[in-house]
Amino acid sequence: MQALSLRQLAKTYKTGVQALRGIDLDVEQGDFFALLGPNGAGKTTAIGIVASLVNKTSGKALVFGHDIDTELEAAKACLGLVPQEINFNQFEKVSTILVNQAGFYGIPRGLAKERMETWLRKLQLWDKRDAVSRTLSGGMKRRLMIARALIHEPRLLILDEPTAGVDIEVRRSMWDFLRQLNDDGTTIILTTHYLEEAESLCRNIAIIDEGRIIEHDRMATVLRKLHSEVFVLNLRHPVAAPPVLPGYALELADDGSLEVVVTKDQNLNGIFAALSERGIEVVSMRNKANRLEELFMRLVEGRDAGTGLPHKAANA
Amino acid sequence: MNDATTVTGRPEAAAPRGHRWVGFRTIVIREFSRILRIWGQTIVPPAITATLYFIIFGSLIGRRIGDMGGFSYMQYIAPGLIMMSVITNSYGNVVSSFFGAKFGRHIEELLVAPLPNWLIVLGYVAGGVVRGLLVGLVVMLIALFFTHLHVEHWLVVIGAVLLTATVFSLLGFINAVFAKNFDQITFVPTFILTPMTYLGGVFYSIAMLPDWAQHASRANPILYMVNAFRYGFLGQSDVGLGVSFGIMLLALVALFVSCVWLMEKGIGTRE
Q1: Is residue B11 reached through a cis peptide bond, with omega within 30 degrees of 0 on the bond before it?
Q2: Rounded to an integer, what distance in angstroms lies between the CA atom of residue A82 and that of residue A181?
Q3: Which of A28, B99, B117, B241 has the lowest tally of Cβ within 10 angstroms?
Q4: Which domains, from first to last, does chain A contain?
Q5: Which of B24, B137, B58 is CA-nearest to residue B90?
Q6: Residue among A13, A80, A107 whose CB faces B22 most closely
Q7: What is the C-alpha to C-alpha distance for residues A110 and A99, in angstroms, rounded to an integer?
């Protein structure tokens, strides 16, 4: 079953800005899905339409088969939203925010209090239950919004930039939490600017630019479309100049490590063998750039000339 | 996930029976909590204002005015002052609370929830009515320190105050929907509501006015509300009781339909 299905979804704002130009998107139940795109691409508009915060101009949106035009309440009951901006009452206590939100979903007060405790403990906010929400740190506010979105235990959780502005430690703990949530059966759709986050967490991906979906596939498939990758090889003993290896382009980095460009039709075994023959010992290796970031930049800037990836201009 | 997951989200997301009642009750509880949390802004100022009115207009000036329609001036203006507090506070509660929710974006908590728009309107209006009645009760208790209040028709008093509080809560809701900044939520109360209330027969009978002013006063809906309420206390009114209740009911239905329509269209709330 599809957790989310969008068909020819379009939005034109009163200003004339076409935020969405008829997008089609399917997210399977149980998926961990990344929706990526540059600022102003239409991600938040698409999420806003699904969550009833934005009126669509045309098209269809279904949440677990419930059409938002004809079964809006059923669609909303399936959905939990963590928006980009802080949008809880900053004068209310943490516990009050959660209990009230549960009430809006029809959950009786007694059960709402039980769930409030459960989710606050899971998100390490239980100690802050009596704190006025505006006194929380940025990371705590983000976690509070996640707890609020989960209080009615939705089947589909949409997170719009959930880790923006939080430190690495909090971000990592959020990732673990979201992975566990997905393992427990919640379908998750994530938008993020941290592409490492999307690559690390998500199984499927759609890239949206200027109101159009320009890529929609499995994460592994999309990454395979990369024509080449740059690897950084850390050496046991630094070399004075990069060795000449036929068929490979190597450069010497400032710290004495080697950078090598490996295309899709090449492999690393050949490089290691050639370096070994020259007495150069490689002790470790890493990608120079985040692979998804590289792909993302090529897609949205139309810079990819040789990989057969869609060109931005061709989609405009 | 615990065994209570069938209440909403999983597995079929079917909303349980009674979920709307829980949602409505939650909005009302939240509004009531807000009224109590900021009691220094919601309860105390109208109590002080009413006390000053009773001292200045009722005791000091009222003694020189003498009787009005067979009642002391204090007794005559007490129902009007109570109604004035109900009007300003029911209106003020909804306009500030709903606009505050828009401004702070926590209105989104309600917009994403599986609640019909008419119920969101009802919840906010109920909050306004609660505050209007609460402040009205406080002002009535203050009035008892200054004069004896005899109630002639309890049902008329209750009906008039409930309808008036509802009508002005709905008006406050519409104001909040269209307001884009804090100036726009104070404009209507300051420049429209207050003059209409003062000219709505709170302090005088329109029988004292020249003919043209009497006709002009009859175009003011607040006149009918104040007089219906006064009739409940004193048994006398400048206008017909049937006309008063007819106007209030008509206004209530028209305003409620307008509020729900605004929410359905997303005007002022959804982009």
Answers
A1: yes
A2: 14
A3: A28
A4: 2-223 (3.40.50.300), 226-291 (3.30.70.1560)
A5: B137
A6: A107
A7: 9
Q: Which residues contact A111 (CB under 8 A, 6 or more apart)?
A: A102, B4, B7
- Beta-bridge partners for A160: A191
d(CA A145, CA A293): 27
Tell me if residue A23 falls in helix, strand or coil: strand
Residue B269 corresponds to which tokens in the numbers above?
């709330």
Give me the residue from B8, B101, B105 closest to A105, CB to CB. Answer: B8
Token pair recorded at residue B123: 């919840």
| Element at A47 (helix H, strand E) | helix A43-50
CA dist B257 and B173 (Å) reads 12
- Write phi, then psi, for A86 (nearest 5 degrees): -65, 125
Distance separating alpha carbons of residues B222 and B171, to the nearest angstrom: 13
Given the structure tokens 């997008």, which residue do they identify?
Answer: A23
* Cβ proximity of B271 and B104 under 8 Å: no
DSSP letters along B231-244, please? HHHHS--SS-HHHH
Q: Would you write out chain A's pLDDT as a tens digit for each of its 316 residues?
A: 899 999 999 999 999 999 999 999 999 999 999 998 888 889 999 999 999 999 999 999 999 999 999 999 999 999 999 998 999 999 999 999 999 999 999 999 999 999 999 999 999 999 999 999 999 998 899 999 999 999 999 999 999 988 877 788 888 888 999 999 999 999 999 998 777 788 889 999 999 988 999 889 898 888 777 667 788 888 888 888 888 888 888 888 877 788 888 877 778 888 888 888 888 888 888 877 666 666 777 776 664 444 444 443 333 2
Q: How many other β-carbons are positioned within 10 Å of the β-carbon of residue A304?
A: 19
Distance CA B245, CA B224 (A): 8
Measured at the CA of A231, the angle between CA A230 and CA A233, to 5 degrees, comes to 150
ipTM of the complex in this document: 0.87
Tokens of B14: 């079917």
Q: What is the DSSP annotation of B93-162?
A: HHHHHHHHHHHTTTTHHHHSSS--HHHHHHHHHHHHHHHHHHHHHHHHHHHHHHS----S-HHHHHHHHH
Outline where DSSP puts E strands in A162-277.
Answer: 187-191, 204-209, 212-218, 228-235, 249-252, 258-263
Mind telling me how many Å the CA of B32 is from chain A's nearest CA?
Answer: 13
A114 in B contact zone (CB under 8 Å) = yes
Contact A100 B109 (CB under 8 A): yes
CB B135 within 8 A of CB A127: no
Strand partners, A6: A25, A61
- Cross-chain Cβ contact B104/A87 below 8 Å: yes
CB contact under 8 A, B14 and A111: no
